[in-house]
Amino acid sequence: MSRRIHARRTEGVDKNVWVEFTQLAADYKAVNLGQGFPDFSPPKFVQEAFCDAVNGGPQMHQYTRAFGHPRLVQSLATFFSRVTGHEIDPLEDVLVTVGAYQALFCAFQALIDEGDEVIIVEPFFDCYQPMVKMVGGKEVYVPLRPKVEGSLSSADWTLSAEELASKFTPRTKAIVINTPNNPLGKVYKTEELQMIADLCIKHDVLCISDEVYEWLTYDGNKHVKIASLPGMWERTITIGSGGKTFSATGWKVGWVISSGHIIKHMKTIFQNCVYHCPTAAQEAVARGFEREYELFGSPESYFQQLPAMLHHRRGKLASCLQSVGLQPIMPEGGYFMIADISSVKVDFNDDSTKDESYDYRFVKWLTKEKGLATIPVSAFYSPEHGKEFDKYVRFCFVKEEATLDAAEQILRKWSQGKLNV
Ligand code: PMP
Ligand code: GLN
C-alpha cells in the first residue's frame, strides 16, 4: 500500500511507558517494583465470588446490561451513596467500564472537543496526555511543586493557587486531578480541593477526578471526594477501579460515577465501542462491594486491611531506600513511592540510551545491570516539565514481603559494591 496507513491521531502517542518497561522487566527477569499491580492474590472473598459467578449458570457467560451489570451498578450506587451522602441512581449516575482506563477514555471522548483546553496536574497518570491528544484537545499543564528543598513527604508538594488560576481560559473545558496521586502519593486536602472546585465553578469547567487509590491512605490522611464539595456533583466525573480496590488488576472492571446528564454522553461513546465489561468479573466486584458495605469501617473490611498491610510495606521500602542513600518522598496514599536518585552517580556505559533523560537511563541500567525494575518519574510529566523531575524514580510497594526483600538485597549489594570501589 503506498498511501499513508495510519490516522493522524496515532502520531505522537506511540510510546508507552508500561509497554516498554514491563517488557524490559520481563526480558531481564528483574525483581519487579515497576508496574503497579499486586504480586499477591486478591482476597479470598472476591476470588470465591468470581468462581461462584463463573459457576452461576448460563447468564453469567452471556452479555449483560450495556452500561453495567444490574447487580454491580446497584452495589456501587448503594455503597457510594453512603460514602458521599449523595443519592446515586444506579441506572442514571453510574457507568461500568473496562477498567479505569476506559472510564478516562470515555470521559475525554464524550466531553472534550477539538481545541478545548484540559488542565492536567503534574505528575499525572501518563494516559491522560495521549487521551486528550487523540480527541484534538490541548493539554495545559500545572505542576505540583515541593514547598521545601529536599522534601520528605508528598504533603509538601502543592499547587500554587495563582499558577493554577492563570491556566484557566475561556477555552478550558476540564481539569484532571488524581487523588491519591500516582506516582507521588499525594492525598489532596479539603482546602486544596476547595481551591480547585472554586475555579471550576467560577469558570464553568468539568472536573475529572481519578480516585482509583481511594482506599489507600496512611497516617490518618483522609481521602476526600471533590464531587462531595458544594456545587461539584453536577460537574465532576469520579473514576474508580475494581482492579485497585480488590487487588485484581487483571479483571479490568472500572466505573464512573457522575450526574446522569454527564454520564449519558459517556454512555454514547461506551455503547459504540466495547458495549459492556465482562459479566462474571462485574458480578464478582458487585459481591465484593456488598460484603464491604456490610463490614464498612470494621477491622474485617478489606478497605481497612489492605492499607494496614501496605502501611507496613511502605515503611519497609522507605527504610531500605534510605539505607542505600536514596531519599524517598513518603507517600500519604496510593501504592507508589518516588525517590531522589541524584545523590548516586552511576556510569551508565550504555550508548543505546545516551539521548534519554537521566531517570530513563537510570531505570534501564538498574533493570539490566542489577535486576531491579522501577519506573522513571519524568514519564508522568509533560516534555516541558519532565527535565525538572528526572532525578526521581518510582518504586511500587504493593508487593509480597519476599519481593521487597529481594529488592532490598539487590540495592544493598549495589551500595556495598560502591563503597568497596
Ligand atoms: N488511573 C490511575 C491513577 C492508575 O494508576 C491506573 C492504573 N491502574 C488507572 C487509572 C487505570 O486503572 P485500571 O487498571 O482499572 O484500568
Ligand atoms: N497503573 C499502573 C501503574 O501505574 C499500570 C498501568 C499499566 O500497566 N498500563 O503502574
3D structure, described in words:
This protein is an alpha/beta fold. It has 14 helices and 15 strands. The strands form 4 sheets. The chain has a 7-stranded mixed beta sheet, with helices on both faces. A 4-stranded antiparallel beta sheet has the order 11-12-15-14, covered by helices on one side. Helix 2 (44-54) crosses helix 10 (279-295), helix 3 packs parallel to helix 10 and helix 4 packs across helix 9 (260-271). The longest helix has 22 residues, at 302-323. The model has no long low-confidence stretch (mean pLDDT 96). Bound molecules: 4'-deoxy-4'-aminopyridoxal-5'-phosphate and glutamine. 4'-deoxy-4'-aminopyridoxal-5'-phosphate binds next to helix 4 and helix 8. One of its GO terms (biological process) is kynurenine metabolic process. One of its GO terms (cellular component) is mitochondrion.
Q: Which helices and strands, and how do they pair?
A:
Blueprint: H1 17-27, E1 31-32, H2 44-54, H3 70-84, E2 94-97, H4 99-111, E3 117-122, H5 128-134, E4 138-143, E5 145-146, E6 157-158, H6 161-167, E7 172-178, H7 190-203, E8 206-210, E9 236-241, H8 242-245, E10 254-257, H9 260-271, H10 279-295, H11 302-323, E11 327-329, E12 336-340, H12 358-370, E13 372-373, E14 375-376, H13 383-386, E15 392-396, H14 401-420
Parallel strand pairs: 1-13, 3-4, 3-7, 7-8, 8-9
Antiparallel strand pairs: 2-10, 5-6, 9-10, 11-12, 12-15, 14-15
This protein binds 4'-deoxy-4'-aminopyridoxal-5'-phosphate (PMP) and glutamine.
